[in-house]
Each structure stands twice: as C-alpha cells, then as structure tokens.
Fold:
Amino acid sequence: MKRKITLKQIARELDVSISTVSKALRNSAEISDDTKQKVQAFAKLYNYRPNNIALSLKNRRTNTIGIIIPEIVHHFFSKVISGVELVANKRGYNVIIGLSNESFSKEVINMEMLANGSIDGFILSMSKETLKLQDYHHFNETMTQGMPIVMFDRVVSEVKCDKVIVDDFNGAKKAVKKLIENGCKSIALITTKDYVSVGKLRTQGYLEALEEHQMPPKAELILKIDESLDYEAHLEALEKEIEQLFQSNPKLDGVFAVNEIYALLAMKVARKLGLDVPNDVQVIGFTDGVLSKHATPSLTTVSQHAQQMGEKAAELLIDKLESEFNSADEVFQTVVITTDLVERESTK
Amino acid sequence: MKRKITLKQIARELDVSISTVSKALRNSAEISDDTKQKVQAFAKLYNYRPNNIALSLKNRRTNTIGIIIPEIVHHFFSKVISGVELVANKRGYNVIIGLSNESFSKEVINMEMLANGSIDGFILSMSKETLKLQDYHHFNETMTQGMPIVMFDRVVSEVKCDKVIVDDFNGAKKAVKKLIENGCKSIALITTKDYVSVGKLRTQGYLEALEEHQMPPKAELILKIDESLDYEAHLEALEKEIEQLFQSNPKLDGVFAVNEIYALLAMKVARKLGLDVPNDVQVIGFTDGVLSKHATPSLTTVSQHAQQMGEKAAELLIDKLESEFNSADEVFQTVVITTDLVERESTK
Structure:
C-alpha cells in the first residue's frame, strides 16, 4: 500500500540534486533550513528509509534509548537494563528493549524496527549467531546513518563504537589464582566454545593463571560446552557432561566455571559423587546472579557488576547524543569494568 | 520545532468536515480511498496525534507487539516475555518491551511512546502504583483509539479487555491444604499488602483452606510486607521481619509465602533458628523461578506457568489484531491458567 521512494525520486520531485537530498536528510549545515524542511517533510510523507534504517535526524529527537539483548531470562542482562534505566531516567530518557534471541536475523530486524524513528541510539550486546557469522554490517550502517551505538559485554574489534566490557581475562585469572593459592592441584575449567568472546577471554585467564604457577594445562580438564539457547531445557545433558569430567579426573579438586549455572551444576555433581564442597572440591563461578548468593553452599564468584555496566553504557550513549561534535571527529572509548572476587562458602 | 496540529486544522486545510477527518483517520469504510489517503498523509506529515496516542490505522500495521511490564529483574516476567516471543515469532510478529518500574507515570509515558506508530497492540501487566491510584484512563483511551490490549497477571475489573490470569486463589488454597494434610497445625502466611491483586487473592486462598479445615486464622501468623521496588536491596530488612514472625510464633510449623524470595528467606530464617526444613517447618512458595529448583532443600512451589501465560496472551492479541470484527461487537475473554503444586524437598 505504501509507495517506496528513493533518494533519486525525492531529488527529481523537489528539483534538487541527490547530494542535496542526502545532506538535507543528514541535517547538514550546508543546506538551507527551508530546503531541509522541504526534503525532510517529503521523505517523511513517503516513508523514505535509507537502506531500511532511518536517519536519526537531530530535530526528530525521541529521547528514547533502544536496548538489544540476546535473551531476557538471564539475570546478567536484566541487571544491565536496570543500570541503563537508572541513568536514562535521571537524564530524561526512556528505554525500550528488543530481543535477538541469539539470532542474527532477529537482531537485524529489531534494529531496523527501532531505528525507524523510535529511538535516538542503541545499547546492545551481540547475538551468538552474529559472532559466529562475523557479519556486522547492520551495526556499521546504523552508525553511518548517524545513530550511535554503545556495545557491552560481547564486543568485537571490527565494529568501531563506544564499548563497555568486563575485565574477563583478569577476572578469570584472579579466580584461578585463588584456587591455586587455596591448595588446588587439579583445576578444571568449564567454559563455552571459543566463538563467544567472553568465554574465550575467561579461558585465556585460566590458562595464564596456571602458567604463572608452573602448572601445565591439561586438555582433559577443560570442558567446552556448546551452548544452546536455553540452559534450563538442557540441564540434564549438561549435568552428564560435568559428571564425566569429574569421573575421568578423580584427582580434580578445583573448578572454575565461566557462568553461574555451570558452577552450580559442578557443585551438584560433586555432592552426588560424595565429594564435599569446599573440603574436597572448591568451586568458583563468574556472574552477578542471585543463584550464587542463595545456593547451599553459597558460591564464590567473580562479580561482573552488571548494573554498573548498564549505567556506564547509558552515560556514554547520552553523552554522545548530547555532544556537539560531528561524527568526523569521533573518538571511541572502551570502558573496562573491573571484576571483584566475592568469596563465599564454596572456597576455603 | 514541529507544528502541533488539530483535527480542526486538518479539516480546514483539506476543506472537509471534522467528522470526515476523524473517520478517515480511523480508516472508516464510509470515506473514499482518495480522501482517506489525503487525510492520512496530511496527518502524518504534521505528526497529528489524537490525545497524544496515535491511532493504529489498519494500513499502518507494524506487526509488532508492545509489552509493558513492571520490572525486568524478575524471572516470572521474563518467562512471560519468552512465551509472548515464541507465539509472536511463529505468527510473524516482533516484540518490543517497555518497563514501568512499578511507576504510574512511566507506564503512561511508555504506552504513549510505543502507541505512536511503533506497535499494533499491547500485552501488559500493571504497575503497583497504577493499582494503588486506581487510574486506568490510559488503558481505556488506548483501546478507544483502536489499539487492543491484553492484560496478564495483575488485572482489574474496571478495564474491559482480554485478560490472562493465574488461578491465584485456588493455587494458594491447594498449597495451604497440602500443608494441613502434611500435619501442619500453625501455618504462617507471608504475603504483600492488599493493593497487589495477586497478593490479595493468594491471601484469600490461604484463609479459605484454613476455614475448610476448621482452623481459625490468627492475625499474628499473617505477615503483610510492604513491597519496595527492589527485593535485593531490602533482603536484610525482610529477613528481620520474617525472623520476628518465627520468634513470636514458636509453634509455627508451616509457611506459605506468596513468592519465591519470601519462601527462601523463611527457609533461611528457619535454618538460622536451628529448625529443620521440612521436619520442623514445611515451606511452600508461589513462583516459576529458578531459585526454587536450585535451593537446598529445593522448594515446593505453586507453579504459575508464566511462559504459558505469555503464549496465551500473544494468541489472544494476535487473534484480535487479525480478526475482521469491528470493535462494537467486541467480546472480551479472561483466560485462567491453572496452577500446579510442584512438590520438592521443603515439604514432607
């Protein structure tokens, strides 16, 4: 029902050059207010969308931030959102959220939908599929069209934007060092496949801690789990894999797990095999979740400060939205949130 | 910068009656396609918004569902969202989410923002403040303007729309009956203040179960907690209140809590006071959360089937969006999702 219109058609209809239309849509100072208003109204009337992602015109500010996250049934992401909300509300911004469900195409669709006039900028964490495909064109296009992005947690160097990350490498290293200092001689790692950047960095932290203590890493102590979309649906299969890890390594006396569920399952398996936590096996997880706090024994974890990540991401985005610089001068920041080791009952 | 325009001005500019403009904007069959296109394009060009909430014009379908929930750091709400996503994606719809943070004004702002052309209809659960203020005008206005709403969990009879609710009353009654049948003689209730409808219904279920077993309810066994926005920030204060409940009722041998956190805190307090769960005190919660499953002892709960609620809500909304009936014939449904008692280790 709606006509689709191109830059060329707008130019012809209004008797101006394509370059003028393009600049007018980008609100360039080179173009007169009169022409800008004419072009923008015309483009709006015919729903012009450049590459299907609309421009964030400076005079169409929505004061709304769009968040795209991979999943919602996950305490980490909901804490990040709380942090974004806190800062956004303080500074007069609203927040809307879209979910990629770890799917590349859903991420693209959600970004298109929100970029189409609903929001001023994005805070996002990439889907696993995007990381696997290494296709980042939608992020770069969105930014080219004048809509800033701040990425958190899962980031890649190929996309130039502001980023907020956790110090995954040092967090993991700290945890494994703690296990070594507590007397563990045979420390297992339960991690994800390498395409998940945080899993990779945490694995490197584990390896470096071992190396610094002249403990050669053993392949049979490293369990790399092919993560599915839904932990809960695969708990039993996961538990079996972890049980095999324990059974094929009878001397195992320490476990570092890159998330909370893996760590809790390791404690469950230990209990099942008659091992006491922390006297026979010490366990450390990586998370900000509530399960760790309420587990019995409560779980020692590397705390990610998810809420602080969200707050920082919102600050970076709003600062950019409200700054007067044009994008040519743009300098991007990567803010690293330091992790803390929260010691509870699962370590000595 | 943008001009605000009224129905009257559109009518004058296009030389038609106000009633024609209004009908054209509602896409009425009485008006010719030509006039409708002219009016709609003009209204769009000048960003006409009736009562600040845009119409959902049939030819402007976005295939997007807006969800408004009170908070996100809550497993129940994230499971509902998963359910909505599942059905929405299957039927070709996208989902975006706004948070009210339990605030009336944030609820209104979020609805306005999303109703402004971003979505086709709402799935929502009211904020506590809205329930307290009993101000439902924004729901009714949104529906008057042709945008359907499906409410879930927290609903009120004053708003006529499709609803999906949990059988709170019978769920609670079932739980308390179980405690009675298991031999509990002195059963405490940990609930919320009455303005939260689900807390109220669960309280009624508790009272009726006692009555049916000729056990007169005792005021000192009922703890009504004034819920704050953030459980986690008030865990210690909560724990103290529950400890007082135990200490002033030394014969207490059963606890029914209207949510998971209250139930887990009751187990924690029991342990602290040297009481064994389930041998000295039996505890039942009300939730779909992950904490219950992973707690030690694991918690017996009334399961709410949150995901199923979300699925049902999405079905109701999409059916309405795709139906050919006009709103005058509208019949609203209330779907009741039956609860199940999931027995785990915290009861005998």
